[in-house]
Specification:
345 residues; binds S-adenosyl-L-homocysteine; three-stranded parallel sheet
C-alpha cells in the first residue's frame, strides 16, 4: 500500500511515510483525493458551519526578535501601540453585537501586560461575556502564568510551534529562543485544560518538505484542538525581506492533510492565505478549513500590527469585515455561525 492509500485508511503515518506523501503534493490526483476526503470529514463533523473568531491585536510591542516577523523587537521602524482594557472591552462589545462568540487576544510578548494586568483583562471579558470563549495568543509564558490566565477565564491558547525541526527553528529565531521551550509550553497548556492551537508557516525560509513531515508528526502526537497554518510572507523590514513567499497551493494541500489527520480540528483559513490570493480564504474553506478570524482591532491601529507585507483587511470597520466575510463564505457553499465553536471531543 502506498502512503496516500495508507493515509486515507489510517489517518496517520510515520515520518518516512509523510515524506512520501509530501513528495507527491504536486500530483493533481493525489491533491484531489485528499481534498475530497478532507471535505467529507469536515462535513461529517461540522456540516456547512464556519466559525468566526474576533481577533483583537492588542499590542504590537514585543520583547522577541523572531527573524520573520514585522513587529519583532529589532524593527525600529514599527510604530508601536497598546490597547487599554477599556479599548479591548469596546472591541468585544462591537464584536458581540456582530455575532462573534469567541474573542482572540493576540499580541507580541509585551512585558507591559504583567500577569496581573492580563488576568484582570481576561476576568473583565469573562464577566461581561459569559457565553463567549476567550482565546489567548501571547506567546511563551511560565506554567504559573498560564494557570493564572486559565483561572481568570481563558479557554483556549494559540501558540504556533513554527517548525518542529530544531535546526530550522534556529534559522528563524535568535539563540535565546528554543523549540524545546515552545513545545514545553504547548504541553503545559494542554495539561491546564486549554483547547490548544499549534501550527506553522508554509514556505518559511529554510523550510524543506522534510521539515513539514516533522511538523505533521508533531501535530499527530500533540493532537491540538486547533491548527493554524498560512503561507510565509516576507516583511520589508526583516532580514527575510527578499525571500520568496510560501506557496498557496502547498498550504491548501496541507490544510486537507491536517483535516484528515485530525478530523475534528478547528482549522482557520488564515489572513495570510487571503493576503497571498484574493480568494485564498474561500479556497481554504473548500479544502477542509472551518474557521475564519476577522479583525476586531480598532481600525486606527490595524496597519501597525504589521507581521508581514500587504496584510488584507486593515482598512475596514469590523461590521464591513463581517459582511464581506459572510458573503465570501457563502460563495463556497458554507455559512458563518454565531457560536463559540468549541472543539468537539
Ligand atoms: N506573539 C505571539 C503571536 C505571534 S503572531 C506568539 O508568539 O505566538 C501569530 C503568528 O503569525 C505567528 O505564530 C507566525 O506563525 C505568524 N507570522 C509572523 N510573521 C509572519 C510572516 N512574515 N508571514 C506569515 N506569517 C507570519
Amino acid at each position: 500500500m502506498d502512503a496516500v492509500e495508507k493515509f486515507l485508511k489510517d489517518h496517520s503515518l510515520s515520518l518516512e511515510e509523510y515524506r512520501e506523501l509530501l513528495g507527491r503534493w504536486q500530483e493533481a490526483d493525489v491533491r484531489e483525493v485528499l481534498k475530497s476526503e478532507a471535505v467529507k470529514l469536515r462535513k461529517k463533523y461540522y456540516g456547512d458551519k464556519v466559525f468566526t473568531r474576533g481577533l483583537i491585536e492588542f499590542t504590537n510591542y514585543c520583547k522577541n526578535n523572531c527573524y520573520y516577523c514585522g513587529i519583532r523587537k529589532g524593527n525600529h521602524n514599527a510604530q508601536r501601540y497598546r490597547l487599554t482594557k477599556e479599548e479591548i472591552l469596546e472591541c468585544c462589545k462591537q464584536g458581540y453585537e456582530l455575532g462573534f462568540r469567541t474573542f482572540v487576544l493576540q499580541g507580541g510578548e509585551d512585558p507591559y501586560y504583567t500577569d496581573e494586568k492580563m488576568a484582570d483583562i481576561i476576568r473583565s471579558i469573562r464577566e461581561s461575556y459569559t457565553d463567549c470563549a476567550i482565546t489567548l495568543s501571547i506567546g511563551e509564558k511560565s506554567y504559573e502564568s498560564y494557570r493564572l490566565f486559565r483561572e481568570a477565564g481563558a479557554d483556549r491558547y494559540l501558540l504556533r510551534h513554527e517548525t518542529a525541526n530544531e535546526e530550522h527553528y534556529g534559522k528563524l529565531h535568535p539563540p535565546q529562543m528554543s523549540l524545546a521551550n515552545r513545545m514545553k509550553c504547548l504541553y503545559e497548556l494542554k495539561e491546564l485544560g486549554y483547547q490548544v492551537g499549534a501550527g506553522f508557516m508554509v514556505g518559511s525560509p529554510g523550510q524543506t518538505l522534510d521539515c513539514i513531515a516533522r511538523d505533521l508528526v508533531f501535530l499527530q502526537e500533540l493532537k491540538p484542538q486547533m491548527v493554524g497554518i498560512g503561507p510565509f510572507i516576507p516583511h520589508h523590514d526583516t532580514e527575510f525581506a527578499n525571500e520568496p513567499a510560501g506557496s498557496v497551493d502547498l498550504t491548501l494541500f496541507l490544510l486537507s492533510v491536517i483535516r484528515i489527520m485530525l478530523p475534528k480540528v478547528l482549522l482557520p483559513a488564515t489572513t495570510a492565505l487571503g493576503t497571498m490570493d484574493p480568494r485564498g480564504r474561500e479556497k481554504g474553506l473548500s479544502v477542509g478549513a472551518n474557521v475564519v478570524m476577522p479583525n476586531l482591532s480598532p481600525v486606527m491601529n490595524r496597519k501597525k500590527y504589521d507581521l508581514y507585507d500587504n496584510k488584507i483587511c486593515t482598512g475596514e470597520e469590523a461590521a464591513e469585515c463581517r459582511g464581506c466575510l459572510g458573503r465570501r463564505v457563502e460563495s463556497v457553499g458554507y455559512r458563518l455561525v454565531n457560536e463559540r465553536g468549541d472543539a468537539i471531543q
